[in-house]
C-alpha cells in the first residue's frame, strides 16, 4: 500500500509542476502549488500609459485582480468585463469597451460652459455617479471568474455594492453598451440623463462633440479597422497573435466560398497563434485533439485520430494541440485531462466524450459536418423517412409568426446535439395534426414515434437555450439505448434498468430481442402513464368526497381542511425504470464479473439497481429472464413492488469498472491531480480501516475501491 502511495505521488509531481514552469522553473517549488493559486504573469495592460479623450487625460482602465475582486467591487457600481486575451470576441470587444470607458469617464454629468475643470471638480463622471469601469483577465484569474460563474468570454457584468445586477455574454456594440450604461446612470441619479440618449464617438476615436444629439441609425462599434488597431493598442497580450483583418471575419454568419477544409487529410498541429487565426476568429468547423506527448492514452489514440483525419480529407478540418507547449491555450479551452477532443464552430465548442475507436471518431466527425448545414426543414414524408433510420428526432414546429430570433435560438442547439440526436424543423400541417399542435413554435421529441413535448409557458421559453438543452439532454436517449462507457452513468444511476445482454453475432436473435425489449418498454411506459393518471384521479376523487361530506354536515373546519389538501404527484416517491441493451460480446468480461453471465449461452436480461448495488436475473419461477415482453414485464412488476417480491443478488463489482475502462485520460490539471492524490490518500486510509472492519465482520466492498484506486494509483499498471 505504501509503495502505491509513494509512486502515485511521485507520478503526480511532474503534473503539478506544469503550470508553474514559465513563472518559476525551480522544480522544488512544485509542492507549493496546490496551496497558492498560480501566480499570474505581470499584466501588460496595467503598465499602459494614460490615454486622452476630448482633450482630457484618462487613466488606464482598472485591471482587477482575482484575490481582491470582491473587496474592490464591494462599494458602488462597477462594470466589469471578464475576458480572455485569446478569445476572438474579446479582442473585438476590447476597443469598444475602452472607447465606452473613455467617453463616459470624460463626460460632464451637468452641462457647463467650455471651461476646463480639474480632477477635483465635483462635476466629474466618477464623483457624480459612483460608477467605475474595470476588467478582469480570466486566464490569469480563472478561479475568480469561476466564482462569478463566468462561462464564456467576453462577459460584461454590472455589480452594485458587490452584488451582480445584470450580465451579458458576447460582443456588444458601443450603442448597446451605452444604452445599458445610460439606464444604470438614470437609476443612480434619476432625471440626470438626456432623454434622447447621447452622441457616441466612433470606436477608437479620440473625441466627440459634447452635448450633441445622438445619431440615428449609424452602425456603431462595427468599424473593424479601427477596432483591430485599438485592440492591439489596448490589449497587448492579444497583439502578438492577431492580424488586423481577422476580427472582422467573426461576424460573417456563413462560411467563405473558398472554404476547402483539410486538403491534406491530416491532423494539423496548432500553435496558439494558428489556433487564433484558423479556429477562434473564423466560422470554420474544427475537430481538435488536445494532448500531451508523455501521456499513454494520447499515444494510444494517435493512430485512430490520424485515420479519422484521413477520412475527413476535404470534409472537415482536423487539428491537434500539444498542451506541453501551449499551456495557456489548453487552459483557455478548458482542457482538464489528456487527451481531450473538442469540436469547435464559430466560437462555440462541444466536447467529444465517446469511444476512441476509428469508427466512433469518424461517425462523430460526420454528424458534426452535417450539423454545419443548420436545422433542416422537412415535410411529413421526409420526417417519416427519417424515423425509419433515427430512433430519436427533435422536431421544431413553427408557423408564419415564428421570428428570426426564434430560429437563431434553434440553430444554437445544433452544436450540443452532435453525436446525440437529430433536430429538424417543419411547418407541415400533417405533422401539426399528427402531434396535435395548435400553438407555435413547439418543440417535441419523437422517440420510436412516441412524442414527448417541451413545455413552454411563453414563446420566450422556447428560446431559453439552457432550459431547452437540459430538457433535450433528458430526452435524447432512445427508449432502448445501447449502453456504452459514455452514457453508462446517465442510464444506470438512480433507476431500475432493464438491461438486455445481447450479441450482434447472432443477427436474427439480436433483432428479435431488441424488438421485444422495446415492446416491453413501450408497454411499461403506457402502463405507467395510465397508472399515474388513475392515481391522480383517485386522489382528486378522495378530496372531492371529503369536501362534499363536510358541506353536507356544514362543518366549516373540515371543509377548509378538505379544500386545502394539495395533490402533488411529485411527492410520491417513484423509482424510475429505464430500458437499455449492452453488447454482450464486447463487454464480455465486465458482464461476467458483474452478473456472472456470459452471452455465449444466449440472450439474457437482468434488472439492475445501481444505487443499491443489486440486480435480479431470474423470474418468479426461478428461470433466467429472457428478452421477451412477458418475461420482462412479469419480473419487473415483482421487482418494483415494495418490498420486492423477488430477492435480489448483489453486484460485487460495479458500473465503475465499466465506466472507467474507456474514459482514460491523463491528468494535466494541478487541482484535479491534487484531488486525485487525495482520493488515493483517503481511499488508502479507508481501505486500511475497512480491512480492520472486515475482520470484525463489517461489510465493505473491497473490489470496488480496488478498481478506483487501481485507476488512479496504477495498480493495474495503467500509470501515466
Ligand atoms: C483504435 O481503433 C481500433 C479500431 O476501431 C480500436 O480497436 C482501438 O481500441 C482504438 N484505440 C483506442 C485507444 O481506443
UniProtKB/TrEMBL annotation:
Top-level taxon of origin: Eukaryota
Bias (Low complexity) ranges: 224-253
Keyword NAD: no
Transmembrane segments: 671-688
SUPFAM superfamilies reported in the protein's UniProt record: Thioredoxin-like
Signal peptide segment: 1-23
Keywords: Membrane, Signal, Transmembrane, Transmembrane helix
Pfam families: Thioredoxin
Disordered: annotated span: 207-268
InterPro entries: PDI_TMX3, Thioredoxin-like_sf, Thioredoxin_domain
Stored CDD domains: PDI_a_family
Membrane topology, record value: Single-pass membrane protein
GO cellular component: endoplasmic reticulum; membrane
Stretches assigned to the Thioredoxin domain: 37-186, 240-474
Locations listed in the record: Membrane
Basic and acidic residues composition-biased segments: 207-223
Name of the molecule in the record: Thioredoxin domain-containing protein
Species this protein is from: Coniosporium apollinis (strain CBS 100218) (Rock-inhabiting black yeast)
Origin organism lineage: Eukaryota, Fungi, Dikarya, Ascomycota, Pezizomycotina
Amino acid at each position: 500500500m505504501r509503495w502505491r502511495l509513494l509512486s502515485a505521488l511521485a507520478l503526480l509531481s511532474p503534473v503539478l509542476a506544469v503550470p508553474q514552469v514559465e513563472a518559476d522553473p525551480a522544480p522544488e517549488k512544485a509542492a507549493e502549488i496546490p496551496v497558492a493559486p498560480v501566480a499570474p504573469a505581470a499584466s501588460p495592460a496595467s503598465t499602459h500609459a494614460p490615454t486622452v479623450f476630448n482633450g482630457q487625460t484618462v487613466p488606464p482602465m482598472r485591471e482587477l485582480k482575482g484575490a481582491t475582486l470582491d473587496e474592490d467591487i464591494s462599494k458602488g457600481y462597477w462594470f466589469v468585463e471578464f475576458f480572455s486575451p485569446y478569445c476572438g470576441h474579446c479582442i473585438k470587444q476590447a476597443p469598444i469597451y475602452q472607447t465606452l470607458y473613455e467617453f463616459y469617464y470624460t463626460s460632464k454629468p451637468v452641462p457647463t460652459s467650455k471651461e476646463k475643470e480639474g480632477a477635483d471638480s465635483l462635476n466629474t463622471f466618477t464623483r457624480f455617479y459612483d460608477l467605475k469601469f474595470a476588467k478582469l483577465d480570466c486566464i490569469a484569474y480563472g478561479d475568480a471568474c469561476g466564482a462569478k460563474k463566468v462561462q464564456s468570454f467576453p462577459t460584461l457584468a454590472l455589480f452594485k455594492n458587490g452584488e451582480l445586477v445584470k450580465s451579458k455574454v458576447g460582443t456588444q456594440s458601443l450603442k448597446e453598451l451605452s444604452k445599458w450604461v445610460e439606464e444604470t446612470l438614470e437609476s443612480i441619479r434619476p432625471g440626470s440623463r438626456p432623454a434622447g440618449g447621447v452622441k457616441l464617438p466612433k470606436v477608437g476615436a479620440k473625441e466627440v462633440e459634447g452635448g450633441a444629439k445622438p445619431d440615428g441609425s449609424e452602425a456603431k462599434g462595427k468599424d473593424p479597422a479601427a477596432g483591430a488597431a485599438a485592440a492591439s493598442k489596448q490589449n497587448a497580450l492579444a497583439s502578438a497573435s492577431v492580424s488586423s483583418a481577422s476580427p472582422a471575419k467573426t461576424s460573417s454568419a456563413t462560411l467563405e466560398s473558398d472554404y476547402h477544409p483539410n486538403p491534406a487529410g491530416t491532423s494539423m498541429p496548432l500553435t496558439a497563434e494558428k489556433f487564433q487565426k484558423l479556429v477562434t476568429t473564423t466560422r470554420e468547423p474544427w475537430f481538435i485533439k488536445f494532448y500531451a506527448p508523455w501521456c499513454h492514452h494520447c499515444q494510444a489514440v494517435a493512430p485512430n485520430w490520424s485515420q479519422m483525419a484521413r477520412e475527413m480529407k476535404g470534409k472537415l478540418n482536423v487539428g491537434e494541440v500539444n498542451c506541453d507547449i501551449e499551456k495557456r491555450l489548453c487552459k483557455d479551452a478548458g482542457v482538464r485531462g489528456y487527451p481531450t477532443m473538442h469540436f469547435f464552430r464559430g466560437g462555440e465548442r462541444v466536447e467529444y466524450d465517446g469511444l476512441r475507436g476509428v469508427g466512433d471518431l469518424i461517425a462523430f466527425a460526420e454528424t458534426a459536418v452535417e450539423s454545419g448545414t443548420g436545422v433542416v426543414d422537412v415535410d411529413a414524408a421526409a420526417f417519416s423517412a427519417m424515423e425509419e433510420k433515427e430512433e430519436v428526432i427533435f422536431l421544431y414546429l413553427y408557423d408564419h409568426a415564428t421570428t428570426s430570433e426564434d430560429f437563431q435560438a434553434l440553430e444554437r442547439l445544433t452544436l450540443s446535439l452532435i453525436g446525440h440526436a437529430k433536430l429538424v424543423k417543419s411547418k407541415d400541417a400533417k405533422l401539426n395534426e399528427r402531434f396535435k399542435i395548435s400553438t407555435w413554435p413547439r418543440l417535441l421529441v419523437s422517440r420510436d414515434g412516441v412524442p414527448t413535448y417541451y413545455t413552454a409557458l411563453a414563446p420566450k421559453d422556447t428560446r431559453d437555450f439552457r432550459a431547452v438543452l437540459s430538457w433535450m439532454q433528458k430526452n435524447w436517449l432512445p427508449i432502448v439505448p445501447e449502453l456504452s462507457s459514455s452514457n453508462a452513468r446517465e442510464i444506470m444511476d438512480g433507476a431500475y434498468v432493464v438491461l438486455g445482454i445481447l450479441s450482434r453475432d447472432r443477427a436474427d436473435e439480436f433483432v428479435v430481442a431488441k424488438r421485444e425489449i422495446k415492446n416491453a418498454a413501450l408497454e411499461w411506459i403506457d402502463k405507467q402513464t395510465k397508472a399515474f393518471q388513475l392515481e391522480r384521479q383517485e386522489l382528486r376523487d378522495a378530496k372531492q368526497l371529503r369536501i362534499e361530506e363536510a358541506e353536507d354536515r356544514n362543518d366549516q373546519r373540515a371543509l377548509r381542511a378538505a379544500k386545502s389538501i394539495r395533490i402533488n404527484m411529485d411527492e410520491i416517491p417513484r423509482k424510475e425504470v429505464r430500458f437499455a441493451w449492452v453488447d454482450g460480446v464486447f463487454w464480455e468480461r465486465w458482464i461476467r464479473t458483474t452478473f456472472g453471465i456470459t452471452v455465449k449461452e444466449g440472450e439474457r436480461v437482468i434488472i439492475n439497481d445501481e444505487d443499491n448495488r443489486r440486480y435480479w436475473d431470474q423470474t418468479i419461477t426461478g428461470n433466467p429472464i429472457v428478452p421477451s415482453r412477458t418475461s420482462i414485464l412479469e419480473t419487473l412488476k415483482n421487482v418494483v413492488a415494495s418490498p420486492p417480491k423477488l430477492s435480489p443478488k448483489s453486484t460485487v463489482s460495479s458500473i465503475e469498472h465499466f465506466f472507467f475502462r474507456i474514459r482514460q485520460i491523463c491528468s494535466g490539471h494541478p487541482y484535479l491531480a491534487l484531488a486525485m492524490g487525495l482520493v488515493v490518500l483517503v481511499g488508502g486510509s479507508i481501505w486500511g480501516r475497512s480491512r480492520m472492519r472486515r475482520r470484525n465482520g463489517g461489510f465493505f466492498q473491497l473490489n470496488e475501491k480496488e478498481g478506483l484506486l487501481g485507476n488512479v494509483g496504477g495498480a493495474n499498471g495503467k500509470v501515466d
